[in-house]
Design a protein that fits this description.
alpha/beta, Rossmann fold, seven-stranded parallel sheet, six-stranded parallel sheet, 14 helices, 36% helix
Length: 378
């Protein structure tokens, strides 16, 4: 049996061996972090922030509670959360082996989202799963909904404990998939892009945008984000410009329509610096999504004190709070009228900043570690 004792590094076990995690800690927690290999998205942002927070606290948690952390990461990702945690680099193909055989023994296994590559490991005494959303019940029908529901039930069945990123996400699951496991609601944090903008020059697309400000939408552009409503809305706002940024491959037909609009600017996926630049210069952020477990972009914009327009659906009223503006009807002409009316007066900047401050990544990491300790009986 191969034993690993080096923190912050990866050692490949002898071929065919069964490996136990060993080290200074009396208790072993393994966290699946394959989202670090994803293209930039909400799940990768979540893992980056949570993993970084755990990494910064790992030494004190080991000292005070005897708990050791190990992250399952893609090849080449060792060290991504700092030197005070261990790393196990594994290939995606190993997920079936880890499910069937006790390759790792640990006291708690955490899958930080329901789509994890390594959905379970055989040698875990307890399994915590974080549920971000069950958007599929709002967006799928027929056989696709049935398959997605079956997969989710199977993942729920393997979890001894649950966490949800919003009260809405918890209630949504509770209605569709009643559960008995202990759970906690732990809010995501929100990155403060306002501290980045001052160090970033003008992006290559700056010349395409009006100097007097613009409306802005950023998302994956999947159909449930409802970006097509915004494009149609701009027919009723001829004196304003809308900038839409995202993964247009998810919605190529909409791109063709948007490009033909004289007051719509189409941008592909933007970098972190470009995102900060757009947030800081937009007049307002528009997010009419009909399926969100949390909704990070509107809160990121609130960090700049910018007004935000949201749908009243799913988790958005919970996270947007009283500081956001809400469309009563997702009808383009009515949406345009609401934008015009609200932007005719100054937004309450202090209320926007105060609402965004409710969501903090350090607090998120602290609450997860507290939950880990509670599950372990510490």
């Amino acid at each position: 049996m191969a034993i690993r004792t080096v923190s912050g590094t990866h050692q490949t076990p002898t071929s065919g061996s069964v490996e136990m995690i060993a080290g200074e800690g009396k208790y072993q927690i393994v966290v699946e972090a394959f989202a670090m290999g994803f293209v930039p998205c909400g799940l990768r942002e979540f893992m980056t922030r949570l993993g970084g927070g755990i990494g910064r606290r790992a030494a004190s948690v080991r000292r005070d509670h005897g708990v050791e952390f190990t992250f399952l990461v893609p090849k080449g990702m060792s060290g991504v959360f700092g030197p005070d945690v261990r790393y196990r680099e594994v290939s995606e193909s190993m997920r079936y082996v880890y499910r069937a055989f006790p390759m790792i023994k640990c006291d708690l296994y955490h899958t930080p989202h329901q789509y994890c590559t390594f959905k379970q490991i055989k040698g875990a005494s307890r399994h915590l799963m974080t549920v971000h959303d069950i958007n599929f019940i709002h967006t799928k029908t027929g056989a696709r909904l049935k398959r997605a529901s079956l997969r989710f039930r199977q993942r729920m069945a393997h979890a001894s404990h649950l966490a949800f990123i919003s009260e809405f996400a918890k209630s949504d699951v509770e209605r569709a998939f009643p559960f008995l496991q202990p759970y906690r609601v732990i809010y995501n944090g929100v990155k403060d892009y306002s501290v980045m903008d001052q160090h970033f020059g003008e992006p290559h697309f700056a010349g395409q945008l009006p100097e007097n400000g613009f409306l802005f939408h950023l998302s994956s552009l999947e159909p449930y984000k409802n970006a097509e409503l915004l494009v149609e809305m701009m027919r009723y706002l001829p004196d304003r410009t809308l900038v839409i940024a995202g993964r247009w491959a998810k919605n190529p037909d909409l791109r063709s329509v948007a490009v033909a609009m004289p007051n719509v600017v189409v941008l592909d996926s933007v970098s972190e610096d470009e995102k900060a630049w757009l947030y800081s210069r937009c007049t307002a952020f528009l997010f009419p999504s009909s399926a969100e477990g949390f909704g990070l972009p509107p809160l990121e914009v609130m960090k700049f004190g910018k007004p935000v327009f949201l749908s009243k659906l799913t988790s958005l009223p919970e996270t947007g709070g009283s500081a956001a503006y809400y469309w009563q009807d997702l009808v383009p002409e009515k949406m345009a009228a609401e934008v015009t009316a609200r932007l005719s007066v100054d937004a309450d900047r202090e209320a926007l900043l105060k609402n965004a401050a409710r969501f903090d990544w350090d607090k998120c990491a602290d609450e997860y570690i507290e939950y880990y300790l509670s599950i372990l009986g510490l």
